[in-house]
Amino acid sequence: MKKTMFSTVLISALAVPFTAGAEEHEPNWQMTWQDEFEGNQLDTSKWRIDIGNGFYDGDEWIEGWGNNELQSYQEDNVRVEDGKLILEAREESVGDDKGEYDYTSGKVLTDESFSQAYGRFEASMKLPEGQGYWPAFWMMPQDDIYGGWAASGEIDIMENRGSETDKVGAAIHYGDLWPQNTYSEEVYQFPEGQSTTDFNEYAIEWEPGEIRWYVNDELYSTKTEWGTKYGEYPAPFDQEFHMILNLAVGGWYGGEPDETTEFPGQVEVDYVRVYEDADAEHPPPGEWIDPDENGEPEDDGPPPVDETKNWEEIGENLIEDGTFDTTTEFGDENDSLVWNVFNMADHDPNGGTADFSIVDNKLQATVNQVGWNWYHIQLMQDVSVPAGTYKLEFDMRSDEERTIRTELTGAGYRQIEFEVNEEMETYETYIDVAQPGDYSLLFGLGKGVDDPELDVPYDMHIDNVRLVEVGIDGESTGPEDPNDSDNWVESGDNLIEDGTFDTTTEFGDENDGLVWNVFNMGNYEQYAGAADFSIVNNELKATVNQEGWEWWHIQFMQDVMVPEGIYKIGFDMRSEEERDVRVELTGSGTGIHTFDVGNDMQSYETYVNVVNPGEFTLMFGLGRDGDDPELDVPYDIHLDNVRIVEVEKGNDEGQEEDVDEPVSGQPSHPGKGAPFKEDEDGNLYLETGNGEKISIPAGKGNSHAENPGRGNKPDHAGRGNNN
């Protein structure tokens, strides 16, 4: 029921499979608590009735329960009749020492009588229909072992927007203290003919390391990944939680009531039942961890660049339209353009928001609401950056003197603060980019937690944004591009196993890795790329049946351990349709290399500088990039003699030239690779467009940042407390 904003921090302990939660036996459910709501009054030995419109967070009064809720909970709105618990929302005026309210409603909880860790928790409920109703069945930690909300977690068994009678939501909240918390959620869609306005049973089954959600015994969500900054997994969901039933009115989740909303509205509860697995042996809760006392200071990124050295610009400006001469509109987190914007108020009405426009060839941001953190208002641009040292420069002024933040998101450098005043001034800083990649230059224009509150609205102006590589006395600090030299000779063995396809008879996939592995996005999205793979005459044959719309939709790959050094990647290839093929040593930071492949079998090669050794994946991307021509399918691609071999500089004299000189690949600027995501345990996964999560063996994909800035779109946001 309580909500969260978009998190700006990674959770410190993402989940790995937890053995206790993977028991392969049918639970022996034994009832531990129940209320069938018999008689004519609420059993106060089981339930406490909550009252009011908010709570104290220390000395601060948080109105609206942190969610902009409009109702004041009253004892008179809770009753038992005809074997049902009734929570009734009414349109009526009441007041207390904190304010006046136009609505009343009911809320009950078991915090003074019952709590339990693990088990099955279920309730049969009938929900009201109407814009602005927000009924919920949820759980909060009994003792907040890992700290305040949401570091100790929250479990939402069911919540609903009264305007949507065909679906309910489920969620867990976790991570860090507000506002650095995060959440995971799921939606259940009722079959045709069923509705929230009928009695339905909502339940979870909770074991260490796994929580499962059910509607009418239909499993629709399973969560195993979460964490808290203050405990070890499976914390925070390893402690006792109590139950809450309530009917809110208004709030950001479902919006305010309107002229169509009929009052009174009721939640009817037929029963609430709790069970435990009598055969299970659950571990005790973990211990609270102080992250500031672990002897490991937080990683703020690489040390600052020494600005006293003789830095000279040696590259071109990587920012597109940094002078705002051609920009006429802005993209957002759902539709990226050259310059993109994000307003937290689009997801939380209390969040920061600004209007963006171009005035006299300058970016103007009119701040209308400051929010409560710097990332609430963002201006950003995606940019591909090779490794090296860069100067970030821009002109800025603000009607109100204030602090702004910049960040090259994903590059790992320290967040930089600038003090901006009413005069247009030029600001600059230097950034070390250790690994090439697709990043996002982000200007954070929201109010920092410790920043003073300023009167709104006021305007900010930005112009002449530049990101340019610099070198000491004109010499680049980035790693050498080995493709700039043609004097390499092989000095090692081939690291690829069966690059000649003499022994390969079958292929692994994202769920079962073998020597050579394949991936087809078409297995997960209807119109995405797909190919059939086979061995024909000791060559790899890929029959492209559907090209998709990204080059990584079709992949052929092998995991390979690569020590530090310079390597030649070589292979023979032909295609029945002339086309581009991308090759990436995924995870090594050596970029994507593009080859123009024709009808005749030819040898292709490129050189890569592996600065940090590791287990990577040599990946051939056989899908269609968005800029590639659309080809008639099906057609065949043949691959042979795949090699990764360490090389060293040869002598200028006595070198034999290749009889048939191979075709060198053109390394494009380092790109994102396949947009797989990596958790802190090195496990990679892919989220498809329809929300499906695909597990990927270690080594697949690429961990470059995929999302612009920090502007991921949360479905809901906010703050709350059950006290």
Short précis:
Residues 289-301 have a biased composition (Acidic residues). Keywords: Signal. This protein is 0% helix and 44% strand.
Give a quick account of the main beta sheet: strands, pairing sense, barrel closure.
10 strands, mixed
Strand content: 35-45%
Per the CATH scheme, the topology name of the largest domain is Jelly Rolls
Distance between the termini: 13 Å
DSSP helix fraction: under 10%
List low-pLDDT spans. Answer: 2-23, 654-659, 668-675, 696-723
Biased composition (Basic and acidic residues): 712-723
InterPro entries: Beta-glucanase-like, ConA-like_dom_sf, Galactose-bd-like_sf, Glycosyl_Hydrlase_16
Biased composition (Acidic residues): 289-301
Domain GH16: 49-280
Describe what you observe in this structure.
This protein is an all-beta fold. Helix content is 0%, strand content 44%. The strands form 8 sheets. Strands 1, 5, 6, 7, 8, 10, 15, 16, 17 and 19 form a 10-stranded mixed β-sheet that branches. A 7-stranded antiparallel β-sheet has the order 2-9-18-11-12-13-14, with no helix packed on it. Strands 20, 22, 23, 25, 28, 30 and 31 form a 7-stranded antiparallel β-sheet that branches. Strand 16 and strand 17 form a beta hairpin. It is globular and about 95 Å long. The model is unreliable at 2-23, 654-659, 668-675 and 696-723 (pLDDT under 50).
Keywords, separated by commas or semicolons:
723 residues; mainly beta; Jelly Rolls; 3 domains; 10-stranded mixed β-sheet; 7-stranded antiparallel β-sheet; 44% strand; globular; disordered C terminus
